[in-house]
């Protein structure tokens, strides 16, 4: 008698126990099931067979054992048994009922007898198995077809029992087994309904006589499909993992209880917390200030967006978006995406700076930004509007600070070149060599020594747009010749290059010096002057249009309010009279400086600029004489530095007047560089 253990005391195990307990070929020593209240428990009690919770105990207690029949249907249990018992002479039979039958048939040829004796019970087993079974007798007539086989072949037992198998299943290989009398194991086959099956066919003997053949087959269509799905799932999983791991946003996932499951490298970078510190730990672990959004989401099952908090040991400012993970209506956990705010703030800051740079590069003013209704200014604006509509070069003339650059912007923006570049070049502020390469660009290798790649100049950059050449009176003779060529030929030659490059750029030139005088002194080419002066526009000085002072002041105050974060509303009447009396050698720029200074001196409660806020402006003479403190209040307010600056401004004003506004000469006279002179003029609003 073979000593047997059955593992699994469910329906299958229980039925098997009943059948086997009645044979005298096998002795069932015990049954194993991790669930002590399984279905087979009563059968075990009835047959007085012990029920064990794990098979290790059963094997140890019941040794020696010949056969273990595993009917849990759990592949893992079968694999474990095979693994642990590989050195023992114990036969392990996997869950399939069919396998048990093979074993019994092959070993003992007892099946048929048993089937005869226990027809009903055996039928129950045969019909409850997942495997399809068809048996034929020695005449190839069907003797058995179980429920599963009926389903798979769409044949009905009552129609086919007693029929020749080839008549109902033309492709059946069972007749071949009758002939060869050999077992065919695990043959792949396709049924007519496109089902993929695996079949094992065995010849059946009784008392050594061939009495028929049995085919047992399993539908593997679903397994194949599942295998495909698993493969798909695997690639999706790999893809998701790649996405999560490469994301720059920190990601953390917790389970339904709020226990950490997964984080990505960005999470560690932002919070400073590693996997060891987070995985398996409560969701609150990473929070240094604020509430856990994971916990909130798990409680409410609703997503949270844009919650601010501080995380990790560095108390990083972050914004989090958290969403629940719900699978088939069951909450499985939540996923959080954390954005580093400090990075965002840095980027916003950089963006602001970039925008500011762009603003200074583009032409920002339009004609509406030119304030003043005086006849002189209105005339200049009309001229400029007309000029804007033509392709001609424009020559803006007027004292420093009158608004020439403002006009140049407005002209560009009014013209059909407005969507292209506007480039401003101060011809006096850069050295001649630099100016040349800045204006015309250079070819690779044009500069000996350091290796530099070729570069476009401003003329090429401004192609189809406008170039504003400020302080054109300061151009060197060499540069004057080159500019004349650009205006005549509409082409430039890069420094170090030979090939001319065609360009289409409108030139808007400007100067505050007496050009005619410079021509007379042979400092400026008359041919260039005539080319530029085809469309001259004279911008009036502020002293010629004092009626614009109030409007201009109000405009400049609102601009300064924005710069200084103030809320000044206007100018008191007496202060305005003071402004009107003044001569304004530095024009609108000087007005802007004086108002800006007044606003700095004002208390936060002051809403209008009063005379006391304009200490440097008593009357026209004040600008040209040494400024002396007028009151005790002013005496304590003025520092030595400020008094020295007043003196410097006075000297600069006088020197400029003496040189009729010619900055090169003024710089020479005062023994300072032209660049330094520009810096100082700008500082004092001259
Ligand atoms: N009519 C005006 N309306 C509003 N603002 C003005 C006006 N005229 C000049 N401004 C302002 O005065 C300042 C000086 O103007 P701008 O730089 O255009 O003068 P400019 O004649 O080009 O001076 P420079 O000859 O020294 O280069 C700028 O801030 C400008 O916005």
Automatic annotation (TrEMBL):
SMART domains assigned: AAA, PAS
Annotated GO MF terms: 4-hydroxy-tetrahydrodipicolinate reductase; ATP binding; sequence-specific DNA binding
Annotated transmembrane regions: none
Entry keywords, A to Z: ATP-binding, DNA-binding, NADP, Nucleotide-binding, Oxidoreductase, Transcription, Transcription regulation
InterPro entries according to UniProt: AAA+_ATPase (IPR003593), AAA_lid_NorR (IPR058031), DapB_N (IPR000846), Homeodomain-like_sf (IPR009057), HTH_Fis (IPR002197), NAD(P)-bd_dom_sf (IPR036291), P-loop_NTPase (IPR027417), PAS (IPR000014)
Highest taxon listed in the record's lineage: Bacteria
Pfam families per record: AAA_lid_14 (PF25601), DapB_N (PF01113), HTH_8 (PF02954), PAS (PF00989), Sigma54_activat (PF00158)
Keyword ATP-binding annotated: yes
Span of domain PAS: 118-194, 236-307
Protein name: Sigma-54-dependent Fis family transcriptional regulator
Provenance organism: Salipaludibacillus keqinensis
């Amino acid at each position: 008698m073979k000593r047997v253990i059955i593992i699994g005391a469910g329906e299958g195990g229980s039925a098997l126990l009943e059948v086997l307990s009645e044979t005298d070929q096998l002795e069932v020593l015990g049954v194993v099931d991790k669930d002590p209240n399984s279905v087979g428990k009563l059968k075990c009690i009835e047959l007085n067979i012990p029920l064990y919770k794990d098979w290790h105990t059963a094997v140890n207690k019941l040794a020696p054992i010949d056969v273990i029949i595993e009917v849990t249907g759990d592949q893992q249990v079968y694999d474990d048994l095979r693994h642990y018992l590989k050195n023992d002479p114990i036969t392990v039979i996997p869950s399939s009922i069919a396998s048990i039958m093979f074993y019994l048939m092959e070993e003992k040829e007892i099946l048929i007898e048993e089937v005869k004796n226990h027809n009903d019970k055996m039928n129950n087993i045969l019909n409850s198995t997942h495997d399809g079974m068809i048996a034929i007798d020695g005449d190839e007539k069907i003797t058995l077809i179980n429920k599963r086989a009926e389903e798979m072949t769409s044949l009905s037992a009552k129609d086919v029992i007693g029929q020749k198998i080839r008549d109902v299943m033309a492709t059946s290989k069972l007749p071949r087994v009758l002939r060869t009398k050999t077992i065919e194991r695990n043959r792949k086959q396709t049924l007519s309904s496109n089902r993929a099956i695996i079949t094992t066919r065995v010849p059946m003997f009784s008392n050594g006589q061939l009495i028929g053949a049995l085919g047992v087959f399993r539908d593997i269509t679903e397994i194949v499909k599942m295998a495909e799905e698993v493969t798909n799932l695997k690639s999706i999983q790999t893809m998701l993992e790649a996405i999560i791991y490469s994301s720059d946003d920190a990601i953390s996932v917790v389970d339904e209880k709020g226990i950490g499951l997964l984080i990505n490298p960005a999470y560690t970078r932002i919070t400073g917390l590693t996997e060891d510190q987070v995985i398996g730990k409560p969701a609150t672990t990473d929070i240094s200030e604020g509430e856990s959004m994971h916990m909130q989401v798990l409680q409410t099952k609703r997503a949270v967006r844009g919650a601010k908090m501080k995380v990790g040991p560095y108390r990083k400012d972050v914004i989090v978006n958290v969403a629940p993970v719900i699978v088939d209506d069951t909450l499985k956990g939540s996923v959080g995406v954390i954005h580093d705010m400090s990075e965002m703030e840095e980027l916003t800051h950089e963006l602001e700076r970039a925008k500011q740079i762009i603003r200074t590069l583009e032409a920002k003013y339009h004609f509406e930004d030119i304030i003043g209704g005086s006849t002189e200014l209105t005339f200049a604006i009309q001229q400029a509007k007309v000029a804007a509509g033509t392709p001609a070069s424009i020559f803006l003339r007027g004292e420093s600070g009158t608004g020439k650059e403002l006009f140049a912007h407005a002209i560009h923006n009014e013209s059909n070149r407005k969507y292209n570049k506007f480039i401003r070049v101060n011809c006096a502020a850069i050295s001649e060599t630099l100016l040349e390469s800045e204006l015309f660009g250079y070819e690779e290798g044009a500069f000996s020594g350091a290796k530099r790649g070729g570069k476009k100049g401003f003329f090429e950059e401004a192609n189809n747009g406008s170039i504003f050449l400020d302080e054109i009176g300061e151009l060197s003779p060499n540069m004057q010749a080159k500019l004349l060529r650009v205006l005549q030929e509409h082409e430039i030659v890069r420094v170090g290059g030979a090939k001319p490059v065609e360009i289409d750029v409108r030139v808007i030139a400007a100067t505050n010096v007496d050009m005619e005088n410079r021509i007379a002194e042979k400092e400026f080419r008359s041919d260039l002057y005539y080319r530029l002066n085809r469309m001259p526009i004279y911008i009036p000085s502020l002293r010629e249009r004092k009626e614009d002072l109030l409007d201009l002041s109000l405009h400049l105050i609102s601009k300064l309010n924005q710069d200084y974060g103030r809320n000044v509303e206007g100018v008191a009447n007496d202060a305005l009279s003071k402004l009107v009396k003044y001569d304004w050698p530095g024009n609108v720029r000087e007005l802007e400086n004086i108002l800006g200074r007044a606003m700095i001196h004002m208390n936060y409660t002051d809403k209008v600029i009063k005379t006391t806020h304009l200490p440097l402006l008593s009357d026209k003479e004040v600008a040209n004489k040494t400024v002396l403190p007028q009151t005790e209040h002013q005496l304590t307010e003025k520092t030595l530095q400020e008094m020295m600056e007043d003196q410097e401004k006075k000297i600069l004003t006088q020197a400029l007047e003496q040189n009729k506004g010619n900055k090169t000469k003024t710089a020479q006279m005062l023994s300072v560089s032209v660049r330094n002179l520009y810096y100082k003029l700008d500082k004092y609003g001259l």
